[in-house]
Amino acid sequence: MSIDNLSLLLPEIALLTLACATLMVDIFSNDPKHGPGYWLAQLTLLVTAVLVLVTYTGDSQYAMAGMFVSDAMSGLLKFAICIISLFALFYSREYLLRHDIIKGEYFVLGLFAVLGMLVMVSANNLLTVYLGLELLSLSLYAMVAIHRDSSSASEAAIKYFVLGAIASGMLLYGISILYGVTGSLELGAVAQVLEGQSDYPTLAIFGLVFVLIGVAFKLGAVPFHMWLPDVYQGAPTAVTLFIGSAPKLAAFAMAIRLLVDGLGPLLPDWQQMLMILAVLSMATGNLIAIAQTNIKRMLAYSTIAHIGFLLLGLVAGNAGGYAGAMFYVITYALMSMGGFAMIILLGRKGAEADQLDDFSGLAERSPWLAFLMLILMFSMAGIPPFLGFWAKWFVLREVIQAGFVWIALLAVAFAIVGAFYYLRVVKLMYFDEPREPDEPQCSTPLRTVLSVNGLSLLLLGLSPGLLMSLCMAAFSP
Amino acid sequence: MLEMIRQMLNATVGQIVPAAWQAQTVEVMLIVMQITIILTPLMLCVAYMVYAERKVIGSIQGRIGPNRVGAFGYRLAGLGQPIADALKLILKEIIIPTGSNKFLFVIAPILSMAPAVAAWAVIPFAADTVLADINAGLLYVLALTSLAVYGVIIAGWASNSKYAFLGAMRSAAQIVAYEIAMGFALVGVVVAAGSLNLGQIINAQSGSLLHWYWLPLLPFFVVYFISGVAETNRAPFDVAEGESEIVAGFHVEYSGMAFSLFFLAEYANIILISVLSAVLFLGGWLSPFEGVLPKSAFTLPVIGSVLGGGIHWLLLKTSLFIFVFLWLRATFPRYRYDQIMRLGWKVFIPITLVWLVVIATLAKLQITPWFN
Amino acid sequence: MFEQIIFYSFGTMLLLSALMVISVRNPVYAALFLVLAFFSTSAIWLLLRAEFLAIVLVLVYVGAVMVLFLFVVMMLDINLARLRAGFMRYLPAGALVALVLAASMVLVVGGEGFNEIRESGLAERGPAYSNTAELGEALFTAYLYPLEIAGAILLVAIIAAIALTQRAKRETKAQNPDAQVAVRRQDRVRLVKMSSERDSE
């Protein structure tokens, strides 16, 4: 019987069922604000998160004929994905309501995207990795295009779709080569076959290259980053926020599953490739971000730089490095979400606050919001004691321990370059004249949630041990 | 019988072609012979179905219908009409419009005729009487009927005429829409019979009149037949031709033999849908007296073979459906385009989906007498 | 021998039609050549005794997907001159990519995993063997999980397509047959009893 251990899939099953229910509820409710659909979607995420906790055991268990794996990493990442998406959907609704483009399908697509992420995180088979990725991407493409009357959103959606399809094609091609080489789609079996051969065929490297390109595309690492700035800038900010948060966790999981679980024996090969990607990403991201005047675009380039740092953790090539990368990606998701949420908060109907100038003199208009933004920017720049600092520290420590000192030095150098444009935002807020005097309008819930988001970076930064030990536990055998 | 012919062929062919090719040559010749045996009556049926159509509709509308053309000075109630029509069409010139795409214009009628004929390969006419007894027979039929649309689309486009193009577009959307409902209905049959082989589907229905699938699969039966009417572009779904709106739709530019091929294809498709309905839902060549009369009745010399299953029952059931086709045409006004789409997408597909769940449950629980 | 002749004729047809798909000027022709390519592929699959895949290829791609494709291509007025403008410029890069892909493909088929299949040849099975049933069984046991995910992906595609195309405001003047049928006399006609009136003054 292949349908064993079905209870491990409880979170996914609940999510799929409730997502369909959300679709139905939303269709039959007449609320112009799509309240019922939205609340059911949030409930779904909450239920899924709880079920992830309930089914968590900490050791690796397999289900569905070995296509599904539940281990410590998947537990932590799934929980983080659900909680982060919960926040993301909240911010999204505020934005959609404010700009009057709310649609019930947005939340349903969001839920399906989360389902795709969970599938990727728990994939133990090349087939499920790919299908999870497609489920996620397809939902995201549609979400980017959801504002049909905006030409920039449509342009972004098309770009995202075409480049995403190419990336999927690359990944699929790599997968097919790996299948040709090893005769199996299961990650463990692939690793076993490769392990057994003292000198694996060049063809395996071929497959690895294509798989890596696919992963790099999805993560947005240089030189496969072209889509990222355009999509981040063109998409409605709510969608940018969504894309910039939880999906990065899933992409990280995909990288771990493919490279470590499946292609672990090829470590020396992909280590070098990742090194190049990481250095290029940090360099390009940080340098080009300086020249941006649009803050969404700036954050997009900063994302590329952060992805470089994240890849650095993988370069270390040991459990500590992976844990560091995981810590980094969770931190990044929290920071990026807060940053885009601030843009949402400052915007008004018909006018996005996506220029750097929109932040000038924010401290005078609303000291609290300016303070939150300060936390976010400091954290992204990696200034202690915020969480972003610990993330960088963690990764760097592992990289140095693995013996890549010069790369660590390069990373620090680029981080310092990067600090410039984050601090420029802080300077604008505190030392420049406001362009408009009145306090930005926002609802109390939005202000509260954003405060929680921002302060979490400070609080977690003050005691980074908890999250750090969780991440370490995820990769300790 | 087949074996006898094969031996005769073997003997003669062996003298002409090299030994290495003998088996294949004989096989090909046999298949061609069988095809001829199937197609000749089919073409005759098509010709006389046109006659039947005019007679039936005439009768429904209180007219007489064709009654002049006979043979040798006798009128024979107009039985010579189809022959005369065919002669007329063959002798007419095929006009190829300027600005049309010559190659596609010529090939379109063939593309519309070929699938209508090819699908007959898997139809079982009686127990073990079938040209190609393949496992995936039902899928094959579904695939071929879905190809019929190419003839229509290509004809419409190649004609370089607005009316033809409009007709082709309408037809394409309509056929794609109804194909889904049709496919789901067939999935229901497959679930019930547990096989894709048409012969086995008929055998699964044996027992009595109540074992035939029209009863447990009634919604599928209705949906399948109506979708069949829509797929063949017949009234009341004939928007692709729509004489009163777009002249004659996709074949407005065709004349002579090219036109008559479209005509033949349409009627061949009608007969195909009718025969399929009979096979899938009315037990094909099974006799309705099975399970009603005592077993000994079927062993009687002549009456037994009439009462028992056989090709005559299949023909009878098929004729019934063909009559319904004609009856529909005489009765209903043409659907409007959006109504056609609504019926296909919003009525048929949900019905089939729901009933599929019901059937799957019945099959899983092995509810007798249909599922055991 | 007989099978080889069939294989090579369909193989040639497949290659030629695939070549025509990308080289003919008229997009409608390109789509039709693609149909021909699908047919040839399907025939080759039949030779491999994969009847289910062969028929489903025709049913799904030729019968449904390509019809919609043709539908769109025939309606569009595609400017070919502009599409072809950059052809020579991108030719070297394109050729390079094609070369790399072709090379790796040759390597894959020469890979270890395929040796077994190549050496053993096709498994000979009797006429009663139904690979439709076999496929169904594999899909609903070993591959149930991917199958379900694929279902979810298709559902997302439907939701996305509807969300992106349907306008909230209905501007069509369609009738509502339900309401028309359900109408009663009282809804349409009101009989009023009036006493006759005389002109005053």
UniProtKB/TrEMBL annotation, chain A:
Catalysis performed (reactions): a quinone + NADH + 5 H(+)(in) = a quinol + NAD(+) + 4 H(+)(out)
Location(s) in or outside the cell: Cell membrane; Endomembrane system; Membrane
Keyword vocabulary terms for this entry: Cell membrane, Membrane, NAD, Quinone, Translocase, Transmembrane, Transmembrane helix, Transport, Ubiquinone
Membrane spanning residue stretches: 6-25, 37-56, 76-92, 104-121, 127-146, 158-180, 200-217, 238-260, 272-291, 298-319, 325-347, 368-391, 403-423, 455-475
EC number: 7.1.1.-
GO biological process, one term: ATP synthesis coupled electron transport
GO function term, MF aspect, one: quinone binding
InterPro entries the record matches: NADH-Q_OxRdtase_suN/2, ND/Mrp_TM
Cellular component, GO, one term: endomembrane system
The UniProt record lists the keyword Transmembrane helix: yes
Entry keyword annotation includes Manganese: no
Residues annotated as domain NADH:quinone oxidoreductase/Mrp antiporter transmembrane: 123-412
Function, as annotated: NDH-1 shuttles electrons from NADH, via FMN and iron-sulfur (Fe-S) centers, to quinones in the respiratory chain. The immediate electron acceptor for the enzyme in this species is believed to be ubiquinone. Couples the redox reaction to proton translocation (for every two electrons transferred, four hydrogen ions are translocated across the cytoplasmic membrane), and thus conserves the redox energy in a proton gradient.
Oligomer status and interactors: NDH-1 is composed of 14 different subunits. Subunits NuoA, H, J, K, L, M, N constitute the membrane sector of the complex.
Stated family: Belongs to the complex I subunit 2 family.
Protein name stated in the entry: NADH-quinone oxidoreductase subunit N
The species this protein was found in: Methylohalomonas lacus
From TrEMBL, chain B:
Pfam family, one: NADHdh
Enzyme class: translocase
Primary location group: membrane
Catalytic activity: a quinone + NADH + 5 H(+)(in) = a quinol + NAD(+) + 4 H(+)(out)
Molecular function per GO: NADH dehydrogenase activity; oxidoreductase activity, acting on NAD(P)H, quinone or similar compound as acceptor; quinone binding
Membrane topology label: Multi-pass membrane protein
Transmembrane domains' residue ranges: 28-51, 103-126, 138-159, 180-199, 211-230, 267-286, 298-326, 347-367
Location of this chain's protein in the cell: Cell membrane; Membrane
Enzyme Commission number(s) from the entry: 7.1.1.-
Annotated GO CC locations: plasma membrane
One of the GO BP terms on file: aerobic respiration
Keywords: Cell membrane, Membrane, NAD, Quinone, Translocase, Transmembrane, Transmembrane helix, Ubiquinone
Complexes and interactors: NDH-1 is composed of 14 different subunits. Subunits NuoA, H, J, K, L, M, N constitute the membrane sector of the complex.
Family: Belongs to the complex I subunit 1 family.
Function: NDH-1 shuttles electrons from NADH, via FMN and iron-sulfur (Fe-S) centers, to quinones in the respiratory chain. The immediate electron acceptor for the enzyme in this species is believed to be ubiquinone. Couples the redox reaction to proton translocation (for every two electrons transferred, four hydrogen ions are translocated across the cytoplasmic membrane), and thus conserves the redox energy in a proton gradient. This subunit may bind ubiquinone.
Name of protein: NADH-quinone oxidoreductase subunit H
Organism encoding this protein: Methylohalomonas lacus
TrEMBL record, chain C:
Molecular-function GO term, any one: quinone binding
UniProt-recorded name of the protein: NADH-quinone oxidoreductase subunit J
Keywords attached to this entry: Cell membrane, Membrane, NAD, Quinone, Transmembrane, Transmembrane helix
TM annotation in the entry: 6-22, 29-48, 54-78, 90-110, 143-164
Function: NDH-1 shuttles electrons from NADH, via FMN and iron-sulfur (Fe-S) centers, to quinones in the respiratory chain. Couples the redox reaction to proton translocation (for every two electrons transferred, four hydrogen ions are translocated across the cytoplasmic membrane), and thus conserves the redox energy in a proton gradient.
Cellular localization per UniProt: Cell membrane
Keyword presence, Transmembrane: yes
Enzymatic class: translocase
Assembly and interaction partners: Composed of 13 different subunits. Subunits NuoA, H, J, K, L, M, N constitute the membrane sector of the complex.
E.C. number: 7.1.1.-
Family classification: Belongs to the complex I subunit 6 family.
GO cellular component: plasma membrane
Organism encoding this protein: Methylohalomonas lacus
Catalyzed reactions per annotation: a quinone + NADH + 5 H(+)(in) = a quinol + NAD(+) + 4 H(+)(out)
InterPro entries in the record: NADH_UbQ/plastoQ_OxRdtase_su6, Nuo/plastoQ_OxRdtase_6_NuoJ
NCBIfam families named among the record's database cross-references: PRK06638.1-4 (NF005164)
Keyword Membrane: yes
Membrane-related topology note: Multi-pass membrane protein
